[in-house]
């Protein structure tokens, strides 16, 4: 059970002061009944809420898919750089959103932005084996030795990587699938072979491929099917 002023503030732009005023004006209704005081408590998972006759959609959590462009850091705030949250439309800004995992500033592709910590943990924890697939472009040709070594587990200075799947798609290009998310992991893995990653684009999390309609810099709410796919091991 949660106070109505808190529920309203988590689902609208109204400030606490405005919410108090709306309630005193008789503008807030829960399940068809006028709310008399801001302290009234409700089960937010099971109410229909209207303000000035307008239905407010209650979503306990928000799940946004972003096709991250280059130039944005994966943080909620930064003193000098643009963050992925700068790409979120204003109507979602009242939520405590954060990116589920990090992509480097110069990496592009699929990213989940949510306010659901448990969900984020589930797709990020290596124990859950949710794989992430990236398209890579290298400054040198991709070799079968790399494929073999990625499979065996590349040794980085912070320990051996879990087995990674490397599929050659062109002379300098490949698709890499990993289940961990260590700092600069893919760049460091290729670094072991003296190779530099020129382009890195995440195309899949779990069983969810970057939706085709989601252009660079665009954000959309994930559907139930997409959320299910994102959690699937493969
Ligand atoms: N590995 C990297 O090196 N960078 C990323 O952004 C993601 C995986």
What would you say this structure looks like, in words?
The chain is an alpha+beta fold and 234 residues long. It folds into three domains: 55 residues, Structural Genomics Hypothetical 15.5 Kd Protein In mrcA-pckA Intergenic Region, Chain A (Roll), CATH 3.10.290.10; 88 residues, Alpha-Beta Plaits (2-Layer Sandwich), CATH 3.30.70.580; 75 residues, Alpha-Beta Plaits. Helix content is 21%, strand content 28%. The strands form four sheets. Strands 7, 8, 9, 10, 13, 14, 15, 16 and 17 form a nine-stranded mixed beta sheet that branches. Strands 3-2-5-6 form a four-stranded antiparallel beta sheet, with no helix packed on it.
What's the layout of helices and strands?
Blueprint: E1 2-3, H1 4-11, H2 16-24, E2 28-30, E3 33-34, E4 41-42, E5 49-51, E6 54-56, E7 63-68, E8 98-99, E9 108-114, H3 117-124, E10 132-138, H4 144-152, E11 155-156, E12 159-160, E13 165-168, E14 173-178, H5 185-191, E15 197-205, E16 208-209, E17 219-221, H6 224-231
Parallel strand pairs: 9-15
Antiparallel strand pairs: 1-4, 2-3, 2-5, 5-6, 7-9, 7-17, 8-9, 10-14, 10-15, 11-12, 13-14, 15-16
The protein binds uracil (URA).
């Amino acid at each position: 059970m949660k106070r109505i002023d808190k529920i309203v503030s988590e689902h609208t732009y109204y400030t606490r002061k405005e919410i108090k005023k709306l309630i005193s004006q008789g503008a807030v209704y829960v399940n068809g009944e006028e709310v008399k005081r801001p302290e009234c408590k409700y089960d937010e998972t099971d109410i229909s809420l209207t303000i000035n006759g307008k239905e407010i959609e209650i979503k306990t959590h928000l799940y946004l898919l972003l096709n991250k462009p280059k130039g944005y850091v994966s943080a909620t705030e930064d003193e000098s750089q643009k963050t992925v949250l700068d790409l979120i439309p204003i109507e979602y800004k009242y939520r405590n959103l954060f990116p589920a995992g990090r992509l480097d500033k110069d990496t592009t592709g699929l990213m989940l932005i949510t306010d659901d910590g448990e969900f984020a943990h589930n797709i990020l924890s290596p124990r859950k084996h949710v794989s992430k697939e990236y398209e890579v472009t290298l400054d040198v040709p991709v070799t079968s030795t790399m494929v073999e070594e990625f499979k065996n587990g590349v040794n980085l200075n912070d320990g051996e990587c879990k087995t990674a799947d490397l599929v050659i798609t062109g002379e300098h290009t490949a698709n890499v699938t990993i289940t961990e998310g260590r700092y600069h992991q893919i760049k460091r893995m290729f670094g072991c072979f003296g190779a530099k990653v020129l382009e890195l684009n995440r195309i899949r999390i779990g069983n969810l491929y970057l939706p085709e309609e989601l252009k660079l810099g665009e954000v959309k709410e994930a559907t139930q099917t997409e959320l299910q796919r994102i959690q699937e091991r493969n």
